[in-house]
Amino acid sequence: MRYPRDLAGHGPNPPHANWPGGANVAVQFVLNYEEGGENNILHGDDASEAFLADVVGAAPWPGARHWNIESMYEYGARAGFWRLHKLFTQAELPLTVYGVATALMRAPQQVQAMLDADWEIASHGYKWVEHKDMERQDEADQIAQAVRLHTVATGSRPLGWYTGRCSVNTVDLVSEQGGFAYISDTYDDDLPYWRVHNAKPQLIIPYTLANNDMRFVTASGFANGEEFFQALKDSFDCLYREGEEGSPKMMSIGLHCRLVGQPGRFEGLRRFVDYIGGFDKVWVARRVDIARHWADHHPYQPPRLAPSQMDAESFMATFGGVFEHSPFIAQRAWEAELGPANDSPLGIHFALRNQFRMASDDERLGVLNAHPDLAGKLAAARRLTADSTSEQASAGLDALTDGERATFTDLNTRYVEKFGFPFIIAVRDNTKASILEAFKNRLENDRDTEFATACAQVERIAQLRIEALFAD
């Protein structure tokens, strides 16, 4: 069983973005241009649009036009767009347009204004419609059609993609289409990252529905421009501070012509533009500029090992010996749920360790008994596994004096007689002296305490072995 979702991401130590000029945050404004591409029977759709408009509780009208919602979308094209165009061109701030292909084909003036301003025009799909129930091939055909019409309308193919009302297949299909510097149909991070599909890496630049004016027309959203400004300011302040602390991030801001283009809402956006102008280390960029920067500074690096992608044979050959002479642990891990979160030393140790912990007491006792005595007969006969040989040598247990060997033999004998399994310790964490000290101290434990202690040491040995595999 393979779990496709990546719940690990960059982890606690994300890569340093190295934004131009040492910026603490990259701010990225997106203007969604959807007007003329929404659901409408004039466009061949089955019903009217009902999404992201100032009609509370709107529902699609099958086979009919919704004059009020059409008019609200038209406001975005006729008035809201030009208000936003003036703000960003006067402030000389770049932005990215998410352009619906059929909307762009109905917007000659707006498209020319976008091109004249040197705005990036990314694809926002063929039509501004829902894709969740669309057949895979139908969606693939619409992606190709969107690229074709986008190229016709703007003069060049899109380098960025965002469907928005997407399906579970969208990101895979756009990756398969190829030619995109980035895809933004995710909301899962504050930094770009690489996603592999069909053995090919695709850059993902996550988007946002939090710093997004769509919340003017959704439940628990913004009531006015001041609330929008405050939400944007708080997000910016947090990310700017994190950048000052050495972890620069990216801030996406989603805008719609018919929403924040309304005068009262617009004032909140204008205040935010003025606010960030008071900070020195801010990089306001187009999305494609962020994509190019990331590809230059953080190119895709294939993982040293990707356990969740291994077949059974490869997995067992790599991890079957991590728990001493106990391949059933690795076998159970491979048969259980593995995903991207397990494709790291910590992640795969977590999966293996959990199988060890879920084993019965007798099975775990068997794992303990599979370990050799320290400096015992197997070592003397050179019959240890390669890992055990290396580990014992790291603490000098392969070069004991006669007196030291006699001490170890005595301790081993007493320990096994008392507990019924050999003394186990993560040798690489210790010296010969500390091992002897632990040996003597742990002989004073009761059996339950020592069983738990030995199991913890088995897990630690496995962890060190896994780390060595990833380091090779």
Automatic annotation (TrEMBL):
InterPro entries: Glyco_hydro/deAcase_b/a-brl, NODB_dom, OHCU_decarboxylase, OHCU_decarboxylase-1, OHCU_decarboxylase_sf, PuuE. Gene3D superfamilies: Glycoside hydrolase/deacetylase, Oxo-4-hydroxy-4-carboxy-5-ureidoimidazoline decarboxylase. PROSITE patterns: NODB (PS51677). It comes from Pelagibacterium flavum. PANTHER family: POLYSACCHARIDE DEACETYLASE-RELATED. CDD domains: CE4_PuuE_SpCDA1. Is involved in generating a small heat-stable compound (Nod), an acylated oligomer of N-acetylglucosamine, that stimulates mitosis in various plant protoplasts. Keywords: Purine metabolism. Belongs to the polysaccharide deacetylase family. This is Chitooligosaccharide deacetylase. Residues 67-285 form the NodB homology domain.
